[in-house]
Write a structure and sequence with these properties.
Strand content: 15-25%
Distance between the termini: 36 Å
Radius of gyration: 20 Å
Number of strands: 11
Number of helices: 13
Shape: globular
CATH architecture of the largest domain: 3-Layer(aba) Sandwich
CATH topology of the largest domain: Rossmann fold
Oligomer: single chain
Length: 325
């Protein structure tokens, strides 16, 4: 079978699905996207150019396939495309009603799921990948990290270490390394070299987080919710949110926004990710995501606008703008 997989470029959930695809099908083509916007454009382009004629199956994992791309698939390629997504906004937009989409935020028992786990269920149930203890452990660590359940699990620290390793190695090296690691079918473990890499990264992250906290600006939105905002790169978004929680949220924030100019994005994180919905805020600014973690884009006009502003005014402006093509 000739396989094409599209997945999320920014975290181990997106890469986890690609790892599984390589284990199941050996030879695959894959492309990674930072957000549904880029995915939408690429799917429409590929359908118009008849690219999917080259493939037996096209998988989309850990990304919401939005309109109008999902409509293009419905009318032109639904027999070849399967979507595996766990973002709440996809359900709000009724994308789960398309029969080629498997979209689920949690299991019947309430356990939060992720794109990698949904894809793994599909592969194993259809006899495309033989489950092993090692792969099971890998998938669960990805789920724990991506859903923030790692904070509540005895295996949580190891799951978070896996994410740290990904941020240090980058997508391609992490993918290759996980494929080598999973050759051991009985046990998933990280090497001593991996452990040292993680230790070094934690020390670097500690310094960066202290700097970001000192640079954070504080605002109140139109609904009187207090939030913090800072410029950074995407790799520190989750750690920054967790650091504020670990400090018992001294400024009593409802959420933070991290502006990543290099990837033209804004990342939203709830301080209480069980009770404050940042996806709603992201949607109102042209984005989407999950209850506790969401994002919205920035365009070139937004980035050019702040060139003559001071830092605080720049952040205040970027907190309010709506992303549109």
């Amino acid at each position: 079978m000739k396989i094409l997989i599209y997945s999320h470029s920014k975290d181990i959930d997106g890469l986890g699905a690609v790892v599984l695809a390589k284990l199941a099908f050996k030879e695959i083509d894959y492309e990674l996207f930072p957000s549904p916007k880029e995915l939408n454009d690429k799917v429409i382009e590929d359908i118009k150019n008849h690219k999917y004629d080259e493939y037996d199956r096209v998988y989309i994992t850990d990304l919401t396939l939005p309109d109008p791309a999902i409509s293009y698939v419905e009318y032109h390629a639904k027999d070849k495309v399967r979507v595996f997504d766990h973002h709440h906004t996809a359900i709000l937009n009724n994308y789960h009603l398309y029969d080629f989409c498997t979209i689920r935020v949690n299991d019947k028992d309430g356990t939060l799921t992720c794109g990698t786990r949904l894809f793994y269920e599909y592969l194993t149930l259809n006899g495309l990948l033989e489950p092993t203890p090692s792969i099971n452990d890998f998938v669960e660590k990805v789920r724990l990290e991506d859903t923030w359940d790692w904070k509540k699990s005895p295996e949580g620290a190891k799951a978070h270490d896996l994410s740290i390793l990904h941020s240090e190695l980058g997508n391609e090296k992490f993918l290759s390394h996980m494929l080598d690691t999973l050759q051991n079918k009985e046990e998933f473990f990280l090497s001593l070299e991996d452990e040292q890499t993680i230790k070094n990264k934690k020390e670097t992250t500690e310094r960066v987080l202290n700097q970001l906290l000192s640079e954070m600006e504080y605002f109140t939105d139109e609904d009187n919710n207090k939030f913090g905002m800072v410029f950074s790169t995407h790799e520190y978004v989750n750690d920054l949110a967790q650091r504020i929680r670990d400090l018992n949220n001294p400024n009593q924030l409802e959420y933070i926004i991290v502006v990543c100019l290099d990837s033209s994005s804004r990342s939203y994180r709830s301080m209480d990710y069980n009770n404050f919905n940042v996806a709603k805020i992201a949607v109102s600014h042209g984005g989407g995501g999950q209850f506790g973690a969401a994002g919205a884009g920035l365009n070139e006009e937004h980035k050019n606008k702040i060139l003559t502003m001071n830092k605080r005014d720049s952040l205040a402006y970027l907190a309010k703008v709506k992303y549109q093509d």
